[in-house]
Amino acid sequence: MLTSAGIAQAGSDPNVGAGKCHITEFCVSVGVGDETSGSNGQADGAQSDGSSKMQCKYTKVEPKPPANHPAWKGKDPEKNDLYLMECTDGGRNNPASFVVVPTGSNPVPQVDPQELAQRAVDSMTLLGPDIASPRTAGKYTVGVPMWMWVNQSATTYGPNTASASAGGVTVTATAKVSKIVWSMGDGTSVTCTGPGTTYSSSEGMAQSPTCGHVYSKTSAGGRHSRFPVTATSTWTINWQGGGQAGQIAEVRQTNMQVAVGEVQVVR
Hints:
The chain starts with 21 loop residues before the first strand and ends in a 6-residue tail after the last strand. The protein is mainly beta and 267 residues long. A hairpin with a 2-residue loop joins strand 9 and strand 10. The chain has 2 domains: 101 residues, no CATH class; 146 residues, Immunoglobulin-like.
């Protein structure tokens, strides 16, 4: 859908006349799923969802340059029209270029592959860590190693793959959690680059080889006598398509509370 379409006819320009360049202009704000329709260099159906950043202006070149002009890219001027395309996303200006389209057709709006990548990511419904340990109902002890790990699924850990298409461009993105930062509620944090290791009773008092923590004080002073624990996952998304490739980072959180006590030794 077009987000804007304003036609500037040559007849309204006092500088346009016999022997001078005759142009027709229209502007489109291009987002994923955008299409240009209509005829005679006009754009129909101006609509917007406010999500687009890329804006392109197409200027129809009339009279047409000679057939040997490099802008035609070997195409036949008798069967095609020539447009000057100028695009910007508000921060990065792109060099102007020429677009050749069949006579009577409108140029296909340019699609920003990174916008498509974000649309693919949005469709994945990425969530915060699915914490398996520590458990909210569990009871933990000062000085005893705590093993932390998460359940793995497409939406909570990855990999998760999705694609988005528009304007003849398809972008595919693959997301996976690259790290989880555990804020333990006692003023310390632990960064784990994997899902953690599942604890087995055969490990006894050993520390986790991949993701763990040892509390040095009880949670008695905390709200409801518990430590607020936050697990923050960083999703790293690699995408490619439309002749481009890139990487996006997304952050998700899961909150819980943990009770930590101490063993009283009776002598």
